[in-house]
Amino acid sequence: MDFDTRALSLEEPGAGWADEIRRQHLENQERTKARLAREFGSDYLERKIDNFISIGTKPFSVLAHHNNFFDQVRRSFVIGAYYPALVGACALGERILNHLVLDLREYYKNTSEYKKVYNKKSFDDWRVPICALEAWGVLLPKAILEFESLRKLRHRSIHFNLETYASLKEDALAAIRHMREIIDQQFVAFADRPWFIRGTSGHVFIKREWEENPFIKTYYLPTCPFVGPYFAITFEGGLKFHDQADYGDGDWTDEEFAAKYEGRLPEQIVKVE
């Protein structure tokens, strides 16, 4: 997964925080500021920190084609390159729509939408891929709203418009926030989404009924380990999963799997040498 929650450490301590918690938070805050200075340069550092705070966290996302480009957009905004950030966020939105249609359209050959997109190499008119992806049930409702908002901002910003100069920073920030919500809706690694089993603390699992879903097969399953409820994780030498070779005959529903996982005892978890 990919994420960045450092913006949270830059928030001011709460009024009712205990002294020790406040002290730890302020220490973390200073370490974060020092790291940002090394990462983005010490010139105009306060402005860069303010920009970093304003764009907020980078959502917990599965690894896909958007991660690196979204990071570049965020970095542009932090250093004050607002127009590249604005254009980059809009272009990334278009790129994600194109990827989704091109990656998934072969699964939907029997739909009327396929006839509109089957021979296209890319889509400049966002309404075409948005409508197709909505009809195929790929995009969640909130993601559709964010794409529509970003589409309007993109049209106003990319095509020549004198008003862009007056609202450049605000528009760039809005575009980044739209992109953040799109990623958080469609590619999130931890959240309440239709394809995740509910009621599993600390980890998320794909529902069985979604395992054959084209979107899940393309973007989630390639990086999902296949595990039972008693698996273990180690971090030495990279993230590694350890599990029983065989759980015996039979089967579990998603609800039964969640109950097994939630009720597992320490002695049931796979021992790692």
Q: Could you give a short description of this structure?
A:
This protein has 273 residues and is mostly helical. Helices cover 50% and strands 5% of the residues. The protein is flat and about 70 Å long.
Describe this structure in words.
By secondary structure, the chain is mainly alpha-helical. It has two domains: 2-186, no CATH class; 208-268, no CATH class. The protein is 50% helix and 5% strand. It has eleven helices and four strands, in the order βαααβαααααααββα. Helix 5 (82-104) crosses helix 7 and helix 5 packs parallel to helix 9 (168-186). It is flat. The relative contact order is 0.10.
Report the order of strands and helices: EHHHEHHHHHHHEEH
Mean pLDDT: 93
The total count of strands amounts to: 4
**End-to-end distance, in Å?**
26 Å
Helical proportion, percent range: 40-55%
Please give the largest β-sheet: 2 strands, antiparallel
3D shape? flat
Enumerate the spans where pLDDT stays under 50 for 5 or more consecutive residues. none
Structural class: mainly alpha
C-alpha-based Rg, rounded:
22 Å
How many helices?
A: 11
**How are the strands ordered across the major sheet?**
1-2
In total, the number of domains comes to 2
The share of residues in extended strands comes to: under 5%
Helices and strands, with pairings:
Blueprint: E1 2-4, H1 6-9, H2 19-40, H3 45-55, E2 58-61, H4 67-78, H5 82-104, H6 114-117, H7 127-135, H8 141-158, H9 168-186, H10 214-219, E3 232-234, E4 240-242, H11 254-262
Antiparallel strand pairs: 1-2, 3-4
Helix pairs in contact: 3-4, 4-5, 4-9, 5-7, 5-8, 5-9, 8-9
